[in-house]
Amino acid sequence: FTQSVPFSSQIQGRLQDGMIITVCGSVLPDADRFNVNLQHGSDDVVLHFNPRYSWLLPISGYVVHNTRQNGKWGWEESKVETPFTIGQMFALQILVTQESYKISTNGKLFSEYKHRMPFSEVDRICVVGKVELNLVAFHNIVPNLPALPGSLMVPYKSIIYGGVLPGKCFVIQGVINLQAKRVGFSLRHKTGIAFYYSPDFDEKVVVRNRYEDGKWGEEERSGQMPFQRGQSFLVTICCSSDKYEVFVNGKQVHTYSRRKNDKEEIDVLEVSGDVQLTFVQH
Fold first, then answer.
1. Where are the alpha helices (DSSP H) in 29-110?
2. Domains of the chain, with CATH numbers?
3. Which residues make Cβ contacts (< 8 Å) with residue 151, sequence separation at least 6?
4. pLDDT tens digits for 48-104?
5. What is the pTM of this model?
6. Which of 131, 191, 225, 264 has the most neighbouring CB atoms within 10 Å?
7. pLDDT tens column, 168-203
8. Which residues fall within 8 angstroms of residue 103, CB to CB, at 6 or more apart?
9. For the chain, percent helix, then strand, then coil, each to nearest 5?
10. Are 230 and 175 contacting, i.e. CB atoms less than 8 angstroms apart?
């Protein structure tokens, strides 16, 4: 969370078929380009994903995909489209398959890049350029489910398979409506809500609570209000054995204690209220 750029990190165990890499951050206002590279060592770039921006025509731009092997770049595959807006938050998702990398931007399929080098050789991820980096994450998809998200309607509900064990994270990106009154993020089970996280824009507080046995618990309302009407956001909820930790735009803002016996009961993530959703991952 909130990593400095240039960013470089080793990938433990290397890439596998079905793995998803998620990179979230913001494109800086003066950006001309940035790179997300999947590398083999420090020299070979197995996948080069490179958005570029034109100051002559600010709304125009393109993305270059390429591979560098033995010190030499291959042929560029370019897409004349700007998936990420200058000055705005973004979510990049790379799905590894046997045939190619399937790349989505802000929850929508953007491009596909056929392998030129074996993905099993990838052992490092690097991010450089005019970008602020909030999150880099890896996980494997659940078998027989769609690999990449489509358009997200609100209220949004998603099934959680296997419960919410320690180490589980939820990544939610969107934009708060200009006239928003309230937004709710809920981890639910069949008889209630294990964790309810709700920015209230009239009172300018974030409410945390749980709903059990037909009644609400005691609200927690202290702490900062990191959301603004009309602004984009990135919420990450990380679950440990005894608490939920909430990060907003890469910064930890709230914690909430959890019941020890709710880990396998939670089966639904819900997002409701005055919000537009662009990306959800768990």
1. none
2. 7-140 (2.60.120.200), 156-281 (2.60.120.200)
3. 107, 108
4. 999 999 766 555 689 999 999 999 999 999 998 888 988 888 889 899 999 999 998
5. 0.74
6. 131
7. 889 898 889 999 999 999 999 988 999 999 999 999
8. 49, 92, 93, 94, 95, 109, 110, 111, 112, 113
9. 0, 55, 45
10. yes
